[in-house]
Amino acid sequence: MTVARGSACSLARVLLCTTAVISLFQTSLYAYAQESVSESEEDLTVVVTASRTEESVASIPGAVQVIGKKELNKALQGSSDISTALSRLVPGFSLDNQTLSGGGQSFRGRSVQILVNGAPRTTSLRRLSRALSLIDPDSIERIEVVNGASAIYGDGGTGGVINIITKTAESEGWSGDISTTVSASERDVSDSLNVTTSLGAGFKKDGASIQLNGQFKNTGDMFDGNGSRIPEDPLTGQGGGSGIEQYDLSGQFVFEGDAFDLSVYANIVKMEQDIKYNTDYTSDPVSIDYSSEYLGLSPMEDSANLSMTLNFYDLGAVGDAKLELYYNNAEKRAAYVPISAANIIEYDTVANESQTVLFAEQAGARLTIDTDLSTLYEGLQLTWGSDYSFDDISQSLPDGQDIIAPMTQHGIASFAQIKAPIGELFEVRAGVRNQLYFLDIDSFVRPGGTLLYNGVEYPLGEHTFTKAQKFYSAHVFNIGGVMHVNEATQVFAGFSQGFSVPDVGGFTRRALPANFTVDDVIDVSAIAPEAAITNSFEVGSRYTTSNLSISASAFYSTSDKGVNFDDATQEILQAEERIWGAELNVSGKITPVWGAGVVLAYAEGVWDQDGDGKLDEDLPNNRIQSPFKATLFSDYDFKNGFSVQGEAVIGSGRSGKKGTTSSGTAYDLTKLEPSVTINASGTYASQYGDFQFGVSNLFDTDQDNVTATALRDRVVLAEGRRFFLTYSKSF
Q: Contact, 564 vs 619, CB < 8 A?
């Protein structure tokens, strides 16, 4: 087997470089950073996502990041989409695609699992994710990010896990907050006006509390750096960032007792996008086709989510236990795209009868038990439990005709994780998870229509898909250790595995018989994809004091059945692949009033696209958009209520090798251009509330949105300069 890049030597060089940078920062800022770990106003030293139980970040053998409310608000820069903040703060997360969809966004080149209070908001069976854009940032207490493959929450976390923890009423009596953000482009203030308003109210008494949050969002047109309007659907049916009207309502009840705690969270979201014109996907960049009025139904989302967590304490020899229950129900309508090279299949000539609606229903239960085994060995801890999950997925035309196989899946898992100290310097842990999935794929008749092939329209026959059952099972493992060099410094190394069932719905939507023009039968059991195990290796170190935080890591991940989508052929392919990279996250105080930091990430990967047994083709652009990504930021507090902040967000772009022709000539992936975006803002805190004002893309740079472009290899421009003003007050 030949690997094009990412050898052990190159990985060692990456690790050496990141370790050197840590040493440099520790030396230069040592004079101000005190050698003691302390908590800020927000306790960001404890996480629950990495192991499903509360533990210190310092004990985790992998890269973990906790984003507090203040840091999140700074990174949003007037946006109401938390993916904007994550793309700037989380090294391995893709740059923002500036749409309502998560299309093209990846985590270390792989899929990311989105959780809210530990309950899933994504499903692998059919990927049409809008999870991040639908969450009200003002309802968030903190975000916990676990990098690398993980099976701790079941299916989907092959690149990492992002767990969004919503806020609860913390102070006795009544509390509340209000936030309003307005933003606009100078190109056309009225047409580009965005307005987002959030309200929160809480009450706490005698260990019981309730928190309510509501958000209204309305977005206007977006303009690129040249002053042209950005299309309302630049990502081929997934919607855009303009013309959105969204309502978000959530509530959380908490009861804290001596023997148990109870938390119940509920959330409903309604979103609709108004599209006026179709998009011309043949132009470079994609543009609005003002001669073609949009005739389809509006892209929309109607979702409801409910979760409950029960914590039981001191259950004798068993220890502590946590029971989590969740239920999600979502209806997601995609945008209508006329038949073209961007959408080669049209099921009906009537626009609003040819677009699709996804229905996703999820339910599940998780039991986690934390047992102290110190009687056997001092500090020995066992975490064990079991999970059950249910998914019901279908996708149809507005008249009810299925275009993918309706599916139901039951998942059952059991796990055990053990951790223990070795002396005063070391902590080790290891675990195993047994995962079973029972997938029922119903038979269905995919309607006929028209298919565009080599520029010619052909009739598309009705295709009957047979019923099938798939059984997926795997034992996945993790092992790791942490060395505590001193109270502030840890060095860690770990191996973990993730298990994922691929986008089965996508396979059944795009499968075609040899002669697609006639009615035919397709055997689903012959085309259904295989589940994939991802192996992730990671080494790194952390340094944390009250004034300086540094985290550096290098990773290498493998999968024998990675999944990639080829937009040119509309095929989904599985093949062996490898991804490697390094990440650095530094933030600190240079003086008591001046802070600075940098977020750096590098990732690249290859796969065996042609099946010749050699990993010599770069992974597609929709998996890795910018091998190098950086955010540099600085802030200054004048200590009179006024502070300023500036940042630069940099993407390297990419020039990748796609494959080799039969004559041996190499041909390349579509080139992705580099990008540099400068943002600036100021904040004034007063007794009447806080005012934040600023500008994104300060220099109105005309550049590509690399993540949106990479999804389908069609150039999509990034938004130009936008001014914003935010008012917020807590009471």
A: yes
The pLDDT confidence band at residue 659, using thresholds 50, 70 and 90, is low
Q: Of the candidates 521, 503, 504, 501, which has an alpha carbon nearest to the alpha carbon of residue 512?
A: 521
Is 342 inside any structural domain? yes
* CATH label of the domain that carries residue 137: 2.40.170.20
What are 399-411's pLDDT values in tens digits?
A: 899 999 999 999 9
- Omega prior to 502 cis, within 30 of 0: no
Question: For residue 324, which phi and psi values (nearest 5 degrees)?
Answer: -120, 130
Q: Which of 277, 274, 307, 303 is nearest to 290 (CA)?
A: 277
Tell me if 242 sits within 8 A of 221, measured CB to CB.
yes
pLDDT band (50, 70, 90) for residue 611: confident
Structural tokens at position 288: 């609005």
630 domain residue, yes or no: yes
Beginning with the edge strand found earlier in the chain, give each strand of the sheet holding 160-166 in spatial order: 64-68, 140-147, 160-166, 112-116, 119-120
Domain count for the chain, please give it. 1
In the chain, the N- to C-terminal Cα span, in Å, equals: 63
Q: Taking the CA atoms of 33, 36, 41 and 43 in sequence, report the sign of the dihedral they define.
A: positive
- Tokens 């090798």 correspond to 657
pLDDT digits (tens, 9 = 90+) for 536-579: 999 999 999 989 999 999 999 999 988 876 655 556 778 999 99
pLDDT tens-digit series, residues 167-200: 999 889 999 999 999 999 999 999 999 999 999 9
> How many whole angstroms separate alpha carbon 581 and alpha carbon 349?
47
| Domain limits for position 534 | 46-730
Q: Has residue 28 been placed in a domain? A: no
pTM: 0.91
- Is 560 within the bounds of a domain? yes
User: Going by DSSP bridges, is the β-strand pair 277-280/260-273 parallel, antiparallel, or unpaired?
Assistant: unpaired
Nearest to 268 by CA among 219, 208, 213: 213
- Who has greater pLDDT, 52 or 196? 196
Angle between helices 69-76 and 82-89 (to 10 degrees): 100
Token pair for 478: 């993790």
Q: Tally DSSP H helices, then E strands, for the chain.
A: 7, 40
**Burial group, residue 353, by CB count within 10 angstroms (0-12, 13-18, 19+):** middle
Q: Is residue 30 predicted with pLDDT exceeding 70?
A: no
Backbone angles phi, psi at 236, to 5 degrees: 60, 70
Question: What was the pLDDT predicted at 1?
Answer: 35
